User: Fold these one by one.
Assistant:
Number 1:
Amino acid sequence: MQGYTIRQARALLDKGKIGAAELTRYYLERAAKLSPKLNAYITIAAAEAEKEALRAQAMLDSGNQKPLTGIPIAISDNISTKGMLTTCGSRMLYNYKPVFDATVIEKLKEQGAVILGKTNISEFCLGDNASSFFGAPANPYNVDKSTSSGAAAAVCADLAVCAISADIGGSIVQSASLCGVVGIQPTYGAVSRYGMISSAPSLSQIGAIAKDAQDCVALLSAIAGKDMRDMTSIGYKSDFANVKECNLQGKTIGIITEYIAQASAEVKAAIENTAQTFKELGCNIVQVSLPSAKYALSAYYIISSAEATSSFALYDGIRFGYRSKEGDTFEQNLWHTRGEGFGEEVKRRLLLGVFALGSGNYEKYYYKAKLVKEKLKAEFNAIFNTCDFLLCPVAAEQGDNTARSATSVQNWQASAFTVAQNLAGLPCASTACGYSKEGMPIGAQLIAPHFADAKLLACATAFEQVFASKRKEAAV
């Protein structure tokens, strides 16, 4: 047996050539064997997965299967799963088991999907690859290098068929790019965030990571939609079900010059080759400018850090999670609990957030950051008046999320090409477009207008069909 795409597994399950329990056991055994090496999972829920596989098989036997019935899926560890450890990669929530399922989990269970476990993330989706309390996940292409997401590592190394992941600053597309798989961050509000443990609600989204764009279509088809428990969710209709191919003849793709100018020669060459492929598919390739891109990173860290100061107020060691044994009063115990429970990067963000919102600083920093956010939205909208899609690198250099010895500022700069999309709430996707001299994947980032998620995945599918012959498998 080998790892499958959703479509391959679906065909085998529907034809009875493999059972849901057998398929689940394959991925559980592989996860148990390789996850210690890759540090991809924080929790492998073997007993629960086997029960869900039996329920999925009953759906198959009765002919009531749905698109994700029996499909083994990994879940990011900041998405609530009832009774299953959900740590957010933090000591603060080392023992937290939610009493409810997130909306996306409810929808997956309705489909009969099998949840294998919870994947490693940077602490609360903040910081570099090493900020997780459980250690950094390794890259299946080279275990000496890192990725910010255990979900991407799990999909790449066949520890799951696909994954549902969460994002506040481009971590879905970044980690997918580093692992040579496909990741999509949908339009803000397309997928309910109810049950997602978020540090920055105005930026956070739930998306998908899979082996190809068509698998992402299947995942978004299942989890997208309006949710009355999340007032930011949008009930727009996107025709995911019929995305099989895309006729790109006459479409215009803009290349963001500000990002290309900062890319390494290796990454730049890969993006130029990608642009040439799209040209051969009938696209018009143009250069476009995003002037406010140079302010996006600063605006993102100010806004996300300011929101984190509010979002993290509930972590007091009293109601749930980690609690220090130090301190004679509530205030003293709170000081020790938060000091011991949060990692260095989270504390750094909280300090920045408090500073940005402080007296005399609000208008100087936070208000201006919000103006940059609105300016970016306007610039993207203007570009999409003449372009159907945008193309740019995921990162200036490829191969590692950030160097383990890098400073905090260098780690923050690794997100320079992804945070503008979060600020604007735009859908974006990453797909492999080449490989470095070291054999590490290089990702191309495609960006689409609001609510054009299906068209975005169709565009990625068209490119993947051409690039398929050049794909290289991971070493693990």
Number 2:
Amino acid sequence: MRKVLARLCTKSAILIGSWAWVPKFLPQITAFDKWVQRRTQGKWSLLRLAGFPGVLLTVTGRKSGLPRSTPLMCTPSSDGILVAGSNFGGPDVPAWVGNLRTAGEASIRYKGKEIAVTARELHGDERATAWGEMLKTWPNYRLYEERTARTIPVFLLVRSA
């Protein structure tokens, strides 16, 4: 029964994530997810409840200088953790992307653990390979790519030394 429920949650999340109107509610979804993560000390998130890997990325704001946290879907890889600045395929790059490009370092909460990471934006063949891996985790990235004229940035997050 548990596996059936988990599969249903995952399929429902993929369906809901494909709807073009969902990005309008991104601020509310993000706020609720942060609340869930705070209440559970990072052990649960909306993504985890839906059966997907996720991180809470915290990076210093390039304008404010304050820590900014954003829940993100991620794809664990042999080299680290991959994240995409998809913004559900919206026309604008998410604010966290600019912050991460400027800072280069951040922290993530992954599976309830706080980890310091160094970020590297991927380009060319390296990005294409990572994008293929990410599509296996979240097939809607393909829809997001079709919805926007911009190239969706992809970052590799690696544990800091």
